[in-house]
Design brief:
heterodimer, A: Beta Polymerase, domain 2, Rossmann fold, 16 helices, B: Four Helix Bundle (Hemerythrin (Met), subunit A)
């Protein structure tokens, strides 16, 4: 029995290679799955393709793993029309326990570029569902994929791996939430423009803010942006007056000097009755005088501060990742136990032991009931029961010992039929 | 026999206290529900206990050290539960910890019904005592919220979120709750004070008791806080500092002054 993964990711392969081996669409993957499952020796398969990784999981109940690996390589080469030697060196190949551990790590987002990012789990789930609908999975990979998703869920629930934002714009929103409560009742002013500023604004809108003002040195640009965000465009000269009205200011202009100064803050804060004011300064060079952060009820974060918050959060995530790895180890162990339970010899032994146990129990009862019987008779009964068991057990034993195509399913069924426990959640 | 309710609620508070501490140390919120249920049931049993005592003795259960601490714990929990309910702010943890602390203290004092001079036994004295303790409980929680506000404000300013800040609600909500507590606490405390003073003058004339002087002084500070807060255009950080100052005066009046002087208010 072999569970193998052949793949490459952002750590092992540059983007030029990754994009060549990536499966571009769902149809693409379906087509590939159908071709793979036709190959001799491949019993089950799942393909997983994102912008950061391409992985092919296969299960084979044949012993010759190297030939399976070769077949998959040839398949990838044919399917993507690329020479094997051009991508071979970027591949990682894991077998059995390592495969299980790898998949669990990937699904729990421990192998991601940004540790703990949540999309990956959904992507694994989608890939599995595609394979499921193409019927290229069965007992082994079904169980494996379900355990992977379960492990990811455990990691998410039992560690704080995904808790703190690790992008600058999300970090900004997180900080704003430390100051303000009902964001839907707050207003935000965008001064200037810029990709990151607009992204932060988008995230803010996502939290329910809908009072949006935009100002820019060029009024036309302000009008364009206001239209994009469903806000109000206002002339740049009104900046000071605007500051008395809004709660959050995102500043990102190309100005070489401070656009918002301490003097301005000193003037406007009494006017706004010291209501808190939160500034985010994304501009380089900075557009807001850093000393305003010392003013009561005024909070200022510039791009470096936000980056620090993000770095700290990443560090936290790495710490949490250690806890997560323990969970992965545990779950890998459980899966391997389950896999081993599908070996034929231990199953045959368990079934025989169980039968023997039942026989002994019944014999005891029989002896207790008919105390007057002679030892000869009892011996005959003993012999008789033993031979009944042997006769009944003969064909299941032979069937389990024989090598057939779906042996593990047979073993699984035998366990069910004879009530031999498999650890299941 | 009512004392079994006391023991039961003390036990539940203790369980709630342990879970809350666990929550705070792990900087998580996943035990909140259990804490809420423990608090709620504990509070119910505690209420039964207080009611029992009231009916049995015919006087408000606030006159001995045991009673005062226990009623204070009850008030704090009631207020925390209300905050939990109205603001959906996850701060019950802090409430139950405080509540348990006072409940624990009260368990060490004799539980007999304290003797009150017959001429002091009246509904107005009961109202005075109950409202005074309840008002002080409101101020105490305002004090806790001021501390939490300062912790959170410092973190936001310093741009470091390592500890408690992670599980604290926003500055806005901390301040809003603080304001509400003062808003309710001040009239209640004022009423208790006025009733107490009138009753005292009627009964004993103008022989001023040190606790009364202190209370009036404390009241002046809270009047200032109340005025500034209702007026509105005030820097929230200063409000927090003043609330903390007011509370220190208050708590000295509640506990400290009895140690230094032979007050007529000394609990029995």
């Amino acid at each position: 029995m072999n569970i193998i993964v052949i793949g490459l990711n952002h750590k092992t392969a540059p983007v030029q290679i990754r994009e060549k081996l990536a499966f571009q669409s769902e149809d693409n993957i379906r087509q590939a799955l159908r071709q793979l499952i036709q190959l001799e020796g491949i019993n089950e398969t799942v393909i997983f393709s994102t912008c950061n990784r391409v992985e092919v999981y296969v299960y084979s109940n044949k012993e010759n793993e190297d030939s399976i690996i070769n077949k998959v390589k040839i398949f990838l080469s044919d399917f993507h029309r690329i020479e094997i030697k051009d991508f071979e060196n970027y591949l990682y190949i894991y077998k059995n326990k390592e495969t299980v551990e790898h998949l669990f790590k990937v699904t729990a987002s421990l192998d991601s570029m940004i540790i703990g990012e949540p999309q990956i789990t959904g992507q694994v789930k989608d890939s599995y569902e595609i394979a499921l609908s193409e019927r290229t999975t069965s007992l082994i990979l079904n169980h494996l994929m379900n355990r992977a998703l379960f492990t990811a869920k455990r990691v998410r629930n039992e560690t704080r791996i995904g808790e703190n934002p690790v992008s600058v714009s999300y970090a900004a929103v997180g900080l704003i939430k430390k100051v303000f409560d009902e964001l839907s009742k707050k207003s935000v002013l965008l001064v200037g423009a810029g990709e990151m500023a607009e992204l932060a604004l988008k995230h803010l809108i996502g939290t329910g803010i809908n009072n949006i003002y935009v100002t820019n040195r060029t009024y036309e640009r302000a009008k364009e942006l206001a239209k994009d965000f469903n806000g109000v465009a206002l002339p740049f000269d009104n900046l000071k007056e605007l500051l008395t009205k809004v709660d959050i200011v995102i500043c990102s202009t190309g100005a070489p000097n401070y656009v918002i100064t301490l003097q301005m803050i000193k003037e406007i804060m009494p006017l706004r009755k010291y209501k808190p004011l939160f500034f985010i300064d994304i501009s380089v060079p900075r557009n807001i005088d850093p000393s305003i952060n010392d003013f009561d009820n005024v909070y200022l974060y510039n791009i470096d501060d936000l980056q620090d918050v993000v770095d700290n959060n990443l560090l936290e995530r790495k710490k949490e990742a250690d806890k997560a790895l323990k969970i992965v180890e545990e779950e890998t162990e459980k899966f391997m136990q389950w896999l081993n339970s599908l070996q034929s010899v231990p199953v045959i032994i368990s079934i025989r032991n169980k039968a023997e146990e039942v026989r002994q129990q019944e014999l005891e009862k029989f002896k207790a009931r008919f105390k007057e019987l002679s030892p000869e008779v009892l011996n005959s009964v003993d012999y008789l029961t033993q031979s009944i068991i042997n006769k009944i057990m003969h064909s299941p034993t032979v069937a389990l010992k024989n090598n057939c195509d779906n042996k593990e399913i047979l073993i699984f069924a035998a366990r069910r039929l004879f009530g031999i426990d498999i650890e299941e959640e | 026999m009512g004392t079994v309710f006391f023991e039961l609620s003390l036990t539940l508070y203790f369980a709630g206290f342990l879970l809350s501490v666990a929550d705070i140390i792990r900087k998580k919120h996943d035990l909140d529900r259990a804490v809420f249920l423990l608090s709620l049931v504990g509070f119910g049993l505690h209420s039964v206990y207080l009611l029992f005592r009231y009916i049995k003795s015919g006087q408000a259960p606030v006159f001995s050290m045991h009673e005062a601490n226990s009623f204070f714990a009850w008030s704090i929990l009631l207020i925390s539960l209300c905050i939990n309910f109205y603001y959906k702010a996850r701060v019950l943890n802090f409430g139950i910890i405080l509540s348990f602390a006072f409940m624990f203290v009260s368990a060490f004092f004799p539980r007999g019904i304290p003797y009150i001079k017959p001429e002091l036994k009246s509904l107005w004295i009961d109202i005075h005592a109950l409202m005074a303790v309840f008002g002080i409980a409101l101020f105490s929680i305002a004090f806790v919220f001021s501390l939490l506000y300062l912790i959170q404000e410092r973190a936001v300013k310093a741009k470091k979120f390592g500890g408690l800040e992670k599980i604290l609600p926003s500055l806005e909500i901390l301040d809003k709750i603080n304001y509400r507590l003062i808003f309710w606490g001040f009239p209640i405390y004022t009423f208790a004070l006025v009733v107490g003073l009138i009753k005292y003058f009627i009964l004993l004339g103008f022989d001023i008791d040190p606790k009364q002087l202190w209370s009036v002084l404390t009241w002046c500070v809270y009047l200032l806080i109340f005025y500034l807060r209702v007026k509105g255009d005030w820097r929230k950080k200063r409000a927090a500092y003043l609330t903390i100052f007011g509370f220190l005066l208050l708590i000295f009046g509640f506990f400290g002054i009895n140690l230094l002087t032979e007050s007529f208010h000394k609990p029995l």
